[in-house]
């Protein structure tokens, strides 16, 4: 625990980008946690970790470069987290990936199907196996998986995405039934609409600018989910009383946009 001398509770945000991942990390750190951030791109991880440390103090965030498609990297990162920060109390599996423009199954290669499914599902399986033993030993822990509209509905073009997300939902239910009674709270959070992150947020804003949609530009939060508002829900799930644990929850913006019509 050389990097967590105050023995703070540890959250691992797996799939830590500038959207939901960073917002969740910041929320938990604000509540006294130390965060382990996992993703592939070092400069993005560094920016997020440095920003958190600048706002919340030294040694509040540490990053671990990990490609979730490679099991050995996942195991190695969680081994380092345990050694450097201590056992993980909260696992948020937030990684998810898909083609921006969907492809029919006939145009989807096995390689593409496998690639996305490794991110959307296999990484969650492996990450959960890394943290569960310590959670069971502590009789306490929270695992939250981030879902999407494609977790519940199969739609044209999503053959390399939805099966993994459906599987993730199933995995959340299975871990719940296997370990909830032993103190592990597992929740599947369906994000039923676009999130105001770097990609979708800026694409949507540019579209609204082109179309002169002033009302939408002035009230973005009415139309697209805000990462900081999402982060409140992850915190809410983690802090629920054990007599009332949510297993699944869905959220969308007040005036739903295209994703929720899938
Ligand atoms: N954005 C939306 O509009 C939206 C809508 C509905 C649901 N969701 C769900 O929300 C979650 C993502 O939240 P977000 O969009 O706000 O993203 P985010 O938290 O900004 O970033 C997620 C991060 O996951 C990382 N990642 C992807 N593939 C990875 C891999 N193979 N190994 C390690 N890390 C990987 C990426 O970083 P690297 O590229 O650096 O690895 C990415 O920055 C996903 O589960 C997604 O399905 C998003």
The CATH homologous superfamily is named: NAD(P)-binding Rossmann-like Domain
- Calculate Rg over CA atoms: 18 Å
* Series of H and E elements: EHEHEHEHEHEHHHHE
Number of strands: 7
Organism: Zopfia rhizophila CBS 207.26
Protein name: Putative short-chain type dehydrogenase
InterPro entries: NAD(P)-bd_dom_sf, SDR_fam
Explain how this protein is built.
β4, α4 (110-138) and β5 (141-147) form a beta-alpha-beta unit. The chain has helices at residues 20-30, 42-56, 71-84, 110-138, 162-179, 198-210, 214-218, 220-223, 227-238; strands at 10-14, 34-39, 61-65, 88-93, 141-147, 184-191, 248-251. The radius of gyration is 18 Å and the shape is globular. The chain contains nine helices and seven strands, in the order βαβαβαβαβαβααααβ. The mean pLDDT is 95. The chain has one domain (10-261): Rossmann fold (3-Layer(aba) Sandwich). With 262 residues, the chain is of the alpha/beta class. Bound molecules: NADP nicotinamide-adenine-dinucleotide phosphate (NAP). The site of NADP nicotinamide-adenine-dinucleotide phosphate (NAP) has 27 residues, from α1.
